[in-house]
Amino acid sequence: MKVLFLYPNVARARSPQVGLSSLAGTLKRQGHDSRLFDITFMEDAEVEASYSRVLSEYRPDLIGVSSRSTEWPTAVSLLRMADVDVPVVVGGPHATIAPEEVIADERVDMLIRGEGEEAIIDLVDRLEAGSDLSDMPNLWVKQDGEIFRNDVRDLIQDMDSLTMPEWSIWDERHFREHYHQVFSPGAEVFGDLETSRGCPYACPYCLTPVMQKLYKGKGKYHREKSAPRIIEEIEKLRQEKDIDYVRFVDETFILNRKRLQEFCGLYQHIRLPFSFSTRPETVSDEMMKMLAQAGANCVSFGLESGNEQYRREMLNRKTKQQEVIDAVALARKYGVKTFAFVMIGLPHEDREKIQDTLELINLLQPD
């Protein structure tokens, strides 16, 4: 079966998406073909003609849309640009958190909620066989004048069992014009890697609490790939794309101390600079030193607000102000650049609290 993925990247951010790469790899392993229609490098005026041309040339059996909430209006516009008799399935964050809105669109035939590797194979196999879709886990589908809303299947617990991502679907510019270049000006080719799934925290402004509720009773939510598997993925990506920088996309890369120690030991022969994200309260002097020696040159900290009480009571973030200050200082001590994530305009946030955030950033002076 031929699957055409649509990526309505309205932000035009240049980086390959790990989720779509994983789906493409899963399909390839099972003998299916996939291509990507990506608007990242297109002018708005050329999108419709390009989309029509791809549909005509590739003649897909299934159209799959991956969409965040901010991208959904663009995704809908894309689907309405061409009237083709091809089933449309929508996945990604927006289909998971707003399935009723998605399934209500006339161009959408079905949607997949949650993680998609097992679901996409189940779907294409059933479509090829002409089998019933009404009872397929993870799937919401319009059939016989009804909408069938199915629960999700159990989570994949063994992350090492996942197929290697298929990076060939992406335009080379996603690797060579990556938005993260500002943090490593000497690097030329960037690779994004996922080493775990399912953040163990429950910040109310994030997708995680929705996913935790969706998958309650469906297996352990936070799961990790082994250190050898991570190294294997990096080696594959370096061989295919000649990357000279690695960006780990996990929300909290360093939670498992044992895995981190094994990873840092194995990474010594990779010798590529890398960046990672974590919460300030998870770092220690020993960890930061180990990461820096392994090659870490940038860490992203989720600070969100400079007001400690607001962080604790409204954002479910128990991080103390001194922990934030100490974490940034540790990174600086070992020559690791710092990136701070903050949000402005949150519910019940007044001018005083915004000023607290500005003052904290001024104090920290992140890179």
Write a concise keyword list for the protein shown above.
TIM Barrel; 367 residues; 14 helices; 2 domains; Rossmann fold; five-stranded parallel beta sheet
Structure description:
The chain is α/β, with parallel strands linked by helices and 367 residues long. It folds into 2 domains: 2-149, Cobalamin-binding domain (Rossmann fold); 172-364, TIM Barrel (Alpha-Beta Barrel), CATH 3.20.20. The protein has helices at 18-29, 44-58, 72-79, 93-97, 99-103, 117-129, 173-176, 208-214, 227-241, 257-267, 285-294, 308-314, 321-333, 351-364; strands at 2-7, 33-38, 62-66, 88-91, 110-112, 139-143, 146-149, 190-193, 196-197, 223-224, 245-248, 274-278, 296-304, 337-342. The strands form 3 sheets. It has a 7-stranded mixed beta sheet with strand order 2-1-3-4-5-6-7, with helices on both faces. β1 (2-7), α1 (18-29) and β2 (33-38) form a beta-alpha-beta unit. It is globular and about 60 Å long.
